[in-house]
């Protein structure tokens, strides 16, 4: 077990670089990271040979002493951060003023609170109740994660601080004594009072703004036609420079509070949309400047898209086949996020992503990593020499475990429903690298193709294989038949061949007839004995002769009459498991856990099954997902 973990760590180092124990092995999975940390803590007790192996992957005695655990003790860490939260709340009176770059006592408090808000919203969607952590934070600040925007809560806190200072909010006079931004916000709340949530009404009442006072508020500033025309000129000027009106709320352009003005216009536009009324003239004017000035998604998303769009328009390449390595780290993270959640995006967001080269196909295609690129180089070199990638598991090419890697890719391709860049590249190298039939058949077909023009004739093993294909022609898949036809191997071209004479009255056929009458099939295991006769072993040898073209037609017809699938083109174990499932189905019995897993596997891999396998499954009520 120790050695297996070590090899896993060695392969991880080759694929991802140094382990960085002083940072807690950040690129490793949790299990591997914990194992590596345990080796560091017990380094002095290891065998000298183990220490030498660890030194080969960068874990020396010195680096082991500086190692940190794979992750923090979550309960202890939460209590420490919670103490910082209390300190911040005692100082500022609220937690909503903490932005993502806020640091308290060496802890990135703002980013941590942002993460907790996301986790709590996800928890409430799943369970309908706040998480235990959210309850602990609510005890410090009940509105640390409000159901409205943090910007609204920050403005309300600013107004409450103004009131706590001994001031009165005079709605009728336009809130004298407050700053311009706060007065504008308060006026907006009065104008939109009926659209606010009940809890927002309660918070406004705490600072002296009731429903009656909201209706008596002074008119909102900058609402006249002349004022709007002036502000629209600033908006056009800003768009000409930045290419978008997705400006942050604190954006100031040429001394004008453009961000706050645009936010008010978006609120107007959404109010009209909510009431079902046609867009107003100001909304149409702003849409003419920027169609996405008021998108149904966040402005942060629109701003990030605009930045990448501008870079691509200037000649930058998206490079979607790789992890967007030519972009800045934050932009790479944003693009990867869009790739992951592409199907959840708004259709207009998907169209905007298409404009920058991130289509549905490229979004579903996972990028290549350095290890996969190395593996594909070996695959190309091997295919150039041997004309196939249908290699055995033990195949090694120039020291690279090509057979094992290809086996892993085949298993993943059968599990996944979305395309993969590695699998597309392998299909380009060899269209039949992952055939729905046995790999041995594909290797034999490749050998037949590469030896058919030899000057001394086709090898004996290839001739035997070709005769077997003539015999089993009707059991082959259409794609296999096309591959054989391309090699001029057709059922009409069957050569005369010698066959051993097996009489229908032979002991094997007699026992097979009795077994089939008792069980309804011949899908028995190799060690099956019937009345003292080794029937399973006899059937295995008979199937082998049939595939080699050495079985008499008489015996073949008798066995087909007993069981049409006595010699299927798929593994015999599949046929045995099918018969067990069929027996349970006919008897109305509940399948065992093993048969349940087998049934689910057939549904998952439905497209890789032979059409006749699909037909057999449907007859017992098993259908694709």
Structure, described:
Helix 22 packs across helix 23. About 3% of the residues have low confidence. This protein is 58% helix and 0% strand. It is elongated, with a radius of gyration of 36 Å. The protein contains 30 helices and no strands. The chain is mainly alpha-helical and 625 residues long.
List keywords for this structure.
625 residues
Kindly report the average pLDDT value: 84
Number of strands: 0
Largest sheet: none
Strand content: under 5%
> Can you tell me the overall shape?
elongated
Structural class determined from secondary elements: mainly alpha
The number of helical runs is: 30
Rounded to the nearest angstrom, the distance between the terminal CA atoms is 38 Å
Helix content: 55-70%
Uncertain runs: 220-226, 493-505
Mind telling me the C-alpha Rg?
36 Å
Query: Topology as H/E string?
Result: HHHHHHHHHHHHHHHHHHHHHHHHHHHHHH
Please describe the topology of this protein.
Blueprint: H1 2-16, H2 30-41, H3 48-56, H4 61-65, H5 74-92, H6 109-127, H7 132-140, H8 150-164, H9 180-191, H10 198-206, H11 211-215, H12 225-242, H13 258-275, H14 281-289, H15 299-313, H16 329-340, H17 347-355, H18 360-364, H19 370-386, H20 402-415, H21 421-429, H22 439-451, H23 460-471, H24 478-486, H25 507-519, H26 535-547, H27 553-562, H28 572-587, H29 593-604, H30 611-619
Helix pairs in contact: 12-14, 19-21, 22-23, 25-27
């Amino acid at each position: 077990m120790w050695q297996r973990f070590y090899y896993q760590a060695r392969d991880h180092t080759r694929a991802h670089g140094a382990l960085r124990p002083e940072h807690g092995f950040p690129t490793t999975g949790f299990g591997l990271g914990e194992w590596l940390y345990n080796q560091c803590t017990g380094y002095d007790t290891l065998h000298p040979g183990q220490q030498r192996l660890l030194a080969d992957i960068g874990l020396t005695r010195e680096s082991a002493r500086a190692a940190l655990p794979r992750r923090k003790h979550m309960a202890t860490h939460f209590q420490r951060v919670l103490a910082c939260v209390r300190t911040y709340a005692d100082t500022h009176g609220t937690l909503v003023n903490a932005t993502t770059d806020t640091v308290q006592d060496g802890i990135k408090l703002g980013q941590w609170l942002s993460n907790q808000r996301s986790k709590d919203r996800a928890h409430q969607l799943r369970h309908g109740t706040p998480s235990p952590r959210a309850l602990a934070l609510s005890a410090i600040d009940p509105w640390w994660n409000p159901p409205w925007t943090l910007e609204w809560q920050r403005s309300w806190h600013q107004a409450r601080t103004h009131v706590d200072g001994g001031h009165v909010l005079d709605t009728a006079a336009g809130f004298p004594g407050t700053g311009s931004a706060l007065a504008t916000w308060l006026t907006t709340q009065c104008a939109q009072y009926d659209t606010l949530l009940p809890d927002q009404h309660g918070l406004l009442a705490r600072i002296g703004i009731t429903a009656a006072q909201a209706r008596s508020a002074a008119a909102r500033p900058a609402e006249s036609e002349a004022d709007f025309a002036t502000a629209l000129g600033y908006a056009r000027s800003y768009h000409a420079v930045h290419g978008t009106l997705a400006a942050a709320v604190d954006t100031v352009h040429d001394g004008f509070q453009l961000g706050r003005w645009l936010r008010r216009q978006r609120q107007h536009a959404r109010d009209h949309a909510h009431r079902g009324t046609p867009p107003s003239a100001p909304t149409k004017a702003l849409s003419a400047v920027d169609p996405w000035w008021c998108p149904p998604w966040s402005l942060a998303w629109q701003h990030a898209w605009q930045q990448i769009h501008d870079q691509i328009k200037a000649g930058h390449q998206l490079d979607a086949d790789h992890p967007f390595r030519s972009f800045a780290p934050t932009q790479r993270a944003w693009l990867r996020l869009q790739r992951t959640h592409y199907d959840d995006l708004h259709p207009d967001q998907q169209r905007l992503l298409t404009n920058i080269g991130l289509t549905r196909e490229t979004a579903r295609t996972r990028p290549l990593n350095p290890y996969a690129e190395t593996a594909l180089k070996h695959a190309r070199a091997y295919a150039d020499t041997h004309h196939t990638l249908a290699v055995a598991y033990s195949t090694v090419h120039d020291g690279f475990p090509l057979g094992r890697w290809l086996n892993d890719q085949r298993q993943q391709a059968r599990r996944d429903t979305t395309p993969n860049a590695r699998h597309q590249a392998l299909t380009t190298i060899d269209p039949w690298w992952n055939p729905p039939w046995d790999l041995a058949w594909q290797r034999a077909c490749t050998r037949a193709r590469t030896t058919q023009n030899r000057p001394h004739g086709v090898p004996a093993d290839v001739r035997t294989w070709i005769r077997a294909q003539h015999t089993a022609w009707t059991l082959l898949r259409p794609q296999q038949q096309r591959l054989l036809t391309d090699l001029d191997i057709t059922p009409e071209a069957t050569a005369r061949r010698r066959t051993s004479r097996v009489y229908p009255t032979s002991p094997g056929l007699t026992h097979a007839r009795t077994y089939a009458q008792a069980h309804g099939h011949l899908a028995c295991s190799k060690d099956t004995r019937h009345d003292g006769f080794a029937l399973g072993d006899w059937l295995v040898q008979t199937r082998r002769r049939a595939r080699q073209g050495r079985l008499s037609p008489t015996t073949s017809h008798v066995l087909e009459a007993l069981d049409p699938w006595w010699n299927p083109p798929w593994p015999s174990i599949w046929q045995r498991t099918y018969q067990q499932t069929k027996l349970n189905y006919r008897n109305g019995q509940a399948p065992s856990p093993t048969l349940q897993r087998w049934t689910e596997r057939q549904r998952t891999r439905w497209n890789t099954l032979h059409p006749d396998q699909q037909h057999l499954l449907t007859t017992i009520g098993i259908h694709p997902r």
